[in-house]
Amino acid sequence: MKRPTLEAVAARAGVSKSSVSRVVNGQATVTPEIRELVMRAVKELGYVPNPAARSLVTQRTDAIAVIVSDPPAGLVSDDPMFSMVVRAASRELEAAGKQVVLMLAGSPESHRRVERFVSAGHVDGVMLVSMHGADPLPAVLARLDLPMVSHGRLGVPVDVPYADNDNLGGAAQAVRHLLEQGRRRIATIAGPLDMTASQDRLTAYRETLRDTGRRSIVAIGDFTRISGVEAMRQLLQDDPALDAVFAANDLMAIGALRTLREAGRRVPDDVAVVGYDDIEASLYSDPPLTTVRSPMGDQAAATARLLLGLLEGGPAEPVILPAELVVRESA
């Protein structure tokens, strides 16, 4: 059966072709009566607007690029936060009638490919996810003068609206909890220091300890489980008497639990462990992990709504969501 045309809709509704075009393209310059006639004809005929033709009229593609910085090997497969972020943002954007284009940008060639795609006018806006401080892509895309937002505050001097969780407050809660438990030698496994979430969590750890006159004991990971294993080994070598560790995400905390078990350290009797994120695996670690719940799905949805607002000329104020300590058996 032939696909219904704009002319067929106009004939069925008894109005002009231009009136049908204005209705299906969402323009407000038609009367409610004509809009009702056209929409009834659209429904009866099963008419579906031609996306290419509609884009010519509206100057919009109804597509959004979700650009993810290529993470360390194994992080996507291990960490459900990535899929949660993409899924939550996609739901919000698709509910607004937007098509999501997912792009990975982890190499100079992929950066050039992303820049070519976005600058060619294939999308109406951009959502950045998990950008590292040295990544030149945000500055390159900002020059295209396209609505753009970031999931998490950027670490480069580019004015991009963002949604984030309270990394400073969440990490401070974790360290204060360990202090309240009577822990005296509290170490941390920080995340990549070119990411603002890692920087903020490390800053909160250091400031909270400094307020009590305690020194910092720091190892650096990259948010993967294996980096938590290795960082915990380093911490035990640096300070065998440590009695607590705050890891900047749950995967590294779970890796630390493995190292402590292999070293014969009991958790929490000998060493208390706190993570960050509250991923599902934290419920099933041995022992179950005390952690900081950061509403990552809510943050992704808020980032998507921020972009949708920008597309309609709305405000571009940052959104900061609260973080909450969840106490389980590891601390």
TrEMBL record:
<keyword id="KW-0804">Transcription</keyword>
<dbReference type="InterPro" id="IPR046335">
    <property type="entry name" value="LacI/GalR-like_sensor"/>
</dbReference>
<feature type="domain" description="HTH lacI-type">
    <location>
        <begin position="4"/>
        <end position="58"/>
    </location>
</feature>
<dbReference type="GO" id="GO:0003677">
    <property type="term" value="F:DNA binding"/>
</dbReference>
<dbReference type="InterPro" id="IPR028082">
    <property type="entry name" value="Peripla_BP_I"/>
</dbReference>
<protein>
    <submittedName>
        <fullName>LacI family DNA-binding transcriptional regulator</fullName>
    </submittedName>
</protein>
<dbReference type="Pfam" id="PF00356">
    <property type="entry name" value="LacI"/>
</dbReference>
<keyword id="KW-0238">DNA-binding</keyword>
<dbReference type="InterPro" id="IPR010982">
    <property type="entry name" value="Lambda_DNA-bd_dom_sf"/>
</dbReference>
<dbReference type="InterPro" id="IPR001387">
    <property type="entry name" value="Cro/C1-type_HTH"/>
</dbReference>
<dbReference type="InterPro" id="IPR000843">
    <property type="entry name" value="HTH_LacI"/>
</dbReference>
<keyword id="KW-0805">Transcription regulation</keyword>
<dbReference type="Pfam" id="PF13377">
    <property type="entry name" value="Peripla_BP_3"/>
</dbReference>
<feature type="domain" description="HTH cro/C1-type">
    <location>
        <begin position="5"/>
        <end position="33"/>
    </location>
</feature>
